[in-house]
From TrEMBL:
Species of provenance: Catenaria anguillulae PL171
Predominant location: membrane
Family to which the UniProt record says this protein belongs: Belongs to the CorA metal ion transporter (MIT) (TC 1.A.35) family.
One cellular component (GO) term of this entry: mitochondrial inner membrane
Name the UniProt record assigns to this protein: Uncharacterized protein
UniProt GO BP: mitochondrial magnesium ion transmembrane transport
């Protein structure tokens, strides 16, 4: 299944990049060492969510604070619109 997200990426050096990308769910999970269930916290279409900060073993934080959805890694922060 494909995901289409608009996101802003900020690298550790401060480089900001905005993009609209289409991802394969499995490829995105594999690239960021996530479980498919973690994608629900990043997807704005799931409206019945509660705020969550989910630490993952791969040094990744999945953040959902209603209007702020982010994937935080040691290399970058991805903010999803």
């Amino acid at each position: 299944t494909e995901l289409s997200w608009k996101c802003t990426s900020i690298s550790t050096s401060g480089h900001v990049q905005e993009s609209v990308s289409t991802f394969s769910k499995l490829a995105f999970c594999k690239q960021h060492h996530l479980q498919p269930r973690d994608l629900r916290k990043l997807d704005a279409r799931y409206t019945d969510q509660y705020p969550a900060i989910l630490p993952r073993a791969s040094s990744v934080l999945v953040v959902n604070l209603h209007h702020v959805r982010a994937l935080i890694t040691p290399e970058s922060v991805m903010l999803f619109n």
